[in-house]
Structures are given as C-alpha cells and as structure tokens.
Amino acid sequence: MPLDEFDRKIVQSLQIDARMPVAQVAERTALSATPVSRRIKRLEDDGVIVGYQPILDARKLGFELDAYVLINLDAHSDDNISRFEQAIQDNSYVIACHAVTGDMDYLVHVIARDVEHLSQITLKSLLRIPGVRDVKSIIVLETIKEMRAMPLD
C-alpha cells in the first residue's frame, strides 16, 4: 500500500516513539488530531502498523551474547521442516529464524547469557532437533548498526 506524505510522517513519528500522543504526532505532520487518529486507525486496519511493543535491552536482562546459528537439515521433507520449525517456535532463546538461500537452510538469531549458555542452547537444544544435520555458530563481537525503523522513501 503506497503511503502519502502525511502517512509517512505519521509512521516516522510512531517509529521514533510508538507511545507518542496523537496531539504530538499531529503537530509533527501539520494535521489536526482527528485526521491523524483516523489515519493511524486505517494504517492499523490495513496492516501497515502491525502492533506496538517495548524495545528491551537484552544486556540489562542478562543476555550478554548475541549469536547467529546457521542450520542445515538432513532432508527437506514436510515432517522434518514442521518438526524443526515447531522446535524453533518453542525455544525462547531464538529471537528470529529465517529460511535462507545458499549453503545453509536456516539462519537463527539466538540470545544467550554467555558462551557456556550458547553452547547449551546449541548442543542440547538446536542440534538435537530431529532432522538437523549441520550447525555453525557466529558470535557477534560488536553491533555496528541495528535499526528497527523501516525506511519510508
């Protein structure tokens, strides 16, 4: 769905602070509060805005380690894929999982307390999912850029 100039300004404001009062969003968009409220409701109804959630600091919650785990399955049967995807859904330390192209089948984003905890997650959980053949871990040393806001150009 194409966004007009006002929709883009509204979404940009909400990406900065989703709790921003409608009056403040209206001020930033040069519209009054009523049309801004209607536009926000339409953006939500149309699925452009899919929800609101706090952004948590993983380190303050004790998760010092950020890692990516590359996973290959031994077969690509429907049962194998379903079992794998359900196990990933059930693992609270997996914060994202993507089916990917290339040498590996999945790219799994994992948070852990430390290297020992990552080892436990990898060896006792991910590697033991039926149908998993290969697992390779990449530990993040430093995050150069991390954005959750979408470009609206």
Automatic annotation (TrEMBL):
Top-rank lineage group of the source organism: Bacteria
UniProtKB keywords: DNA-binding, Transcription, Transcription regulation
InterPro entries: ArsR-like_HTH (IPR011991), AsnC-type_HTH_dom (IPR000485), Dimeric_a/b-barrel (IPR011008), Tscrpt_reg_AsnC-like (IPR019888), Tscrpt_reg_AsnC/Lrp_C (IPR019887), Tscrpt_reg_HTH_AsnC-type_CS (IPR019885), WH-like_DNA-bd_sf (IPR036388), WH_DNA-bd_sf (IPR036390)
Pfam families: AsnC_trans_reg, HTH_AsnC-type
HTH asnC-type domain: residues covered: 3-64
Gene3D superfamilies reported in the protein's UniProt record: 3.30.70.920, Winged helix-like DNA-binding domain superfamily/Winged helix DNA-binding domain
Gene Ontology CC: cytosol
GO BP, one annotated term: response to amino acid
The protein, known as: Lrp/AsnC family transcriptional regulator,leucine-responsive regulatory protein
Taxonomic placement: Bacteria, Pseudomonadati, Pseudomonadota, Alphaproteobacteria, Sphingomonadales
